[in-house]
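Hey team,

Filing this mostly as a record. A colleague (T.K.) asked me to run one chain through the structure pipeline before their review meeting, and I want the input and output archived in the tracker in case anyone asks later how it was produced. No errors, nothing strange. Just documentation.

Input sequence:
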Amino acid sequence: MGFGDILKKAKPEEETIELPDETEEPVEKIMVRVENLGGLEDAERIERLMQAGCILLLKVKELQSKDLGEFKNTVDKLKRRCLQYGWDMVAVSDGYIVMAPGFAKIVR
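Output structure:
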């Protein structure tokens, strides 16, 4: 028995570890929609889209310039829905409002 035989015996046996296949689950796509906000009658439609998980860019410039009172009432109704369901809402320049469901956060 030589020195080479001792080194061969001292080697630890190699273990083979099989890793499980990592199959990616299909990722659900998030819809981003641009919608017009024409008044209180559109609030229900906007609410349904938000419950479906869409992120919305609402065009409000036309309603804001046409009827300021109806604009305020509609935005107040949407704000109440946002508080009720945990959605986020922010006004941006150029007459748009961004609304996002609870899983998306708008960073200000």
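Quick notes for T.K.: The chain has one domain: 21-100. Residues 68-85 form the longest helix (18 residues).
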